[in-house]
């Protein structure tokens, strides 16, 4: 089971400011505080803070990797960003807010966080959010069960 720290998100003003200013200390302090509080994975989300979501996510990943090797939850609904970032993320990773698709899971070999919503994309948060964290999808489970 994963306990996912959700605080590294560009929707928060301190994270937004850290993304814009590239202030690593803010992000690293949040990462270490969440791990100390019991998180076993860290969600990273640029939100609307930057127009370069790919660059922002990679900066978050690199910044966090300086202080933690915890699994990272790559949180973006933009498939082009997800597909560009995930292969570059060292260590364990989980996909969040992405389309639950066998081909996508096979390409990135990450876990998919099932938000309980529409398999075509981000679902209704009240529909049973985070029911399951599974390697890929059921069809990809046996081949990509390394998460």
How would you summarize this macromolecular structure in one to three sentences?
Residues 20-101 form the Pterin-binding domain. This protein is of the alpha/beta class and 147 residues long. The chain has helices spanning 13-21, 24-36, 53-65, 79-85, 102-108, and strands at 4-9, 41-45, 72-75, 93-96, 111-114, 132-135.
Explained architecture:
- The chain is α/β, with parallel strands linked by helices and 147 residues long.
- The chain has a single domain, classed as TIM Barrel, CATH 3.20.20.20.
- Helix content is 33%, strand content 18%.
- Strands 1-2-3-4-5-6 form a six-stranded mixed β-sheet, with helices on one face.
- The longest helix is centred in the first third of the chain and has 13 residues, at 24-36.
- Mean pLDDT is 77; it is low at 110-147.
């Amino acid at each position: 089971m994963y306990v996912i720290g959700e605080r590294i998100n560009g929707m928060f003003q301190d994270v937004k400011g850290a993304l814009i200013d590239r202030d690593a200390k803010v992000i690293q302090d949040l990462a270490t505080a969440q791990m100390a509080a019991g998180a076993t994975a860290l969600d990273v989300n640029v939100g609307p803070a930057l127009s370069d979501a790919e660059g922002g996510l990679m900066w978050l990943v690199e910044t966090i990797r300086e202080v933690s090797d915890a699994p990272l939850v790559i949180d973006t609904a933009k498939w082009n960003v997800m597909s560009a970032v995930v292969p570059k993320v060292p260590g364990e990773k989980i996909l969040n807010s992405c389309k639950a698709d066998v081909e996508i899971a096979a390409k990135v070999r990450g876990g998919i966080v099932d938000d309980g919503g529409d398999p075509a994309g981000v679902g209704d948060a009240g529909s049973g959010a985070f029911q399951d964290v599974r390697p890929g999808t059921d069809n990809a489970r046996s081949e990509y069960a390394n998460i």
